[in-house]
Specification:
With 266 residues, the protein is an alpha+beta fold. It has four helices and eleven strands; from the N terminus they run E-E-E-E-E-E-E-E-E-E-E-H-H-H-H. The strands form three sheets. It has a four-stranded antiparallel β-sheet, with no helix packed on it.
């Protein structure tokens, strides 16, 4: 309820002890019972008490059904009140005596059944009109399978997440996270002790019998080595050009201050 009981709870601060306080399924109403044998019904939307009812003894267990019926376990007596949210009832809708004091009380969802546990076992009470006869299969289907329940949980979570958090950025599609890629490569190299992507020394493959000789293998090896040297030279030249560009750049001279001899200046 966020802030506990409303401020007009009877006996609050004078030794009053709350024994049971169930909530209706939608969270709009709450019922409480204490040692003073009184049953109080609160409207959580207005945050005030609606009405009170005197019980035979203090209810140790309370429970709301899906249709708003209230079950109260008063020691060995189980009472069910109808239209308790509209006004105080003069007499209970259903009354049942248990052989021993009740230890628990719950309504069965979508069924007109109230379960009560006691020291000697369990008792099922038929309470007409307690369960919801018409259910929404998309919201709460009591006959759904395990796979349907998992899909429903995922759908419920997606509906709570804002759409901005689950939408994709078109600018990031098709790109490579270079930082993560380099970090993974470095960690793998440290773990293996060598660089698995490093290019090894070229070793010519032997051809079919009669088509391979030591001279041909040597020529192929020399050809590959020359190509690698040319690639290294091209790379070094490109780096030198890139480094020399900022130094070669000169300030732009206005057209009025330019001379005809500026074209011969290096």
């Amino acid at each position: 309820t966020g802030g506990g009981l409303p401020t007009d709870a009877p006996g609050e601060g004078r030794g009053w002890k709350r024994r049971a306080s169930p909530l209706l399924s939608l969270g709009r109403y709450m019922a409480t019972s204490g040692l003073d044998r009184k049953l109080h019904v609160y409207d959580l939307r207005a945050y005030r008490r609606l009405h009170s009812l005197l019980l035979p003894t203090g209810a140790g267990h309370l429970d709301f059904s899906q249709r708003g019926l209230l079950g109260a376990a008063c020691q060995e007596v189980v009472q069910v009140y109808k239209d308790i949210l509209v006004g105080p009832s003069s007499k209970p809708y259903v009354c049942h005596a248990l052989p021993r004091p009740a230890h628990g009380l719950r309504f069965c969802p979508f069924e007109d059944v109230l379960g009560a546990g006691h020291e000697e076992g369990f008792a099922s009470l038929l309470v007409p009109g307690a369960g919801e006869p018409n259910f929404d299969a998309l919201e709460n289907n009591p006959f759904r399978s395990r796979k349907q329940r998992q899909e429903w949980e995922v759908k419920a979570l997606l509906e709570k997440i804002p759409s901005e958090l689950i939408s994709l950025d078109p600018g990031q599609l098709g790109t490579v996270d270079t930082v993560s890629l380099e970090q993974q490569h470095q960690e793998r190299t440290e773990r293996l002790g060598y660089d698995p992507q490093a290019k090894g020394k070229f070793s010519p493959r032997r051809r079919l019998k009669g088509r391979d000789s030591a001279g041909s293998r040597l020529k192929r090896k020399q050809k590959v080595a020359a190509e690698e040297r040319r690639a290294a030279i091209r790379k070094s030249l490109a780096e030198k050009d890139q480094a020399s560009k900022p130094k070669a750049s000169r300030a732009v001279v206005p057209a009025a201050q330019q001379s005809a001899l500026d074209r011969f200046r290096k």
